[in-house]
Design goal:
single chain, 304 residues, mainly alpha, Dna Ligase, domain 1, two-stranded antiparallel sheet, 14 helices, 50% helix, 7% strand
Length: 304
């Protein structure tokens, strides 16, 4: 009887010890697998191409975003997401649940930048804007857009892509190359101009002619109300083979512009100088917005 009682006590003690151990293990797991902080600021976390689960987990722990790289790896493997991590720039917070962090980096919820390209900007100015967000360098952007024959790659007729990179606000992420950025701007250009194709044909013009003239209208004034009037004047001059005499075309054709147009600049030859050439230049001088494009297609009625 005594032996039975002793065995019973031993069983109880062992059971309690196992429960205590299990409780401690669960508590430790919940601690290690939980958020590192209750309140904290988000930090930029960059996953490079080729990084695996272990290297990402260790870097997350090293940068203080998670408590335990081991717990994070176990979670990822259990969820079947160990090989689903995507490269990119992320905004992560130590107060996030590790489950949420895992979801972010496996779904590729990268940081996106709102990039605004103003109307009337040239390719050179657009390159400055893009590079200011450290998306790619100015040189990388210009090297791509200035390729010989790139306009034909996109189905345009003009010399280069000047005028066809539509001015708008875009959402870009780091890691994109110049082609991806330009593709997005060209898609936007097509979305804006496609509904106007019928009107372009009615006016007896080509898309290239419309965009070229619209770019001059864009640079002539920042007042939307004046654009149909200016477009009308230019169109009337084109009909009678008169020079457009537009200062912005002179500036565009100059290598260096100090801020003042001199008399000799007006007579200096450039294929873009409309004080010298008749008709429109060989291509746009900037990226026109929709209002300038519509001004060319729906000009005011003027006698001059």
């Amino acid at each position: 009887m005594l032996v039975f009682k002793v065995k019973k006590v031993i069983v109880i003690i062992i059971s309690l010890a196992l429960l205590a151990g299990a409780g401690a293990a669960i508590g430790t797991w919940l601690y290690l697998a939980g958020p590192r902080a209750q309140h904290s600021k988000s930090a930029v976390f960059i996953i490079q191409n080729g990084m695996n689960l272990r290297s990402v987990s260790e870097m997350l722990e090293k940068e203080g975003i998670i408590r335990s790289s081991l717990a994070f790896m176990i979670r990822a493997q259990y969820k079947g997401k160990g090989r689903m991590i995507k490269a990119g720039e992320y905004s992560l917070n130590p107060a996030m649940e590790p489950e949420r962090i895992l979801e972010i980096i496996t779904k590729g919820e990268v940081v996106s930048y709102s990039v605004t390209i103003p109307e009337g900007f040239t390719i050179e100015q657009i390159a400055d804007v893009i590079s200011s967000y450290s998306l790619i360098t100015k040189e990388e952007f210009l090297m791509y857009v200035n390729q010989d024959g790139i306009e034909k790659m996109y189905g345009f007729n003009g010399p280069g892509l000047e005028g066809y990179l539509y001015p708008d606000t875009y959402s870009f992420e780091k890691g994109l190359n110049a082609k991806a950025i330009v593709d997005a701007m060209i898609r936007r250009f097509r979305a804006v101009t496609s509904p106007l194709e019928g009107r372009i044909t009615e006016n007896g013009m080509t898309l290239h002619e419309v965009i070229t003239l619209a770019s001059i209208v864009e640079k002539e004034t920042g007042n939307p109300d004046e654009r149909p009037l200016i477009a009308s004047v230019f169109l009337n001059r084109i009909k009678i083979n008169m020079r457009l005499d537009s200062d912005p075309t002179v500036i565009y054709g100059m290598k260096d512009f100090s801020g003042n147009i001199r008399k000799k600049d007006l007579s200096a030859y450039s294929p873009y100088n409309t004080y010298v050439i008749r008709g429109i230049p060989p291509g746009p001088i900037a990226s026109p917005g929709l209002e300038s494009i519509r001004a060319v297609l729906y000009p005011a009625e003027t006698a001059y």
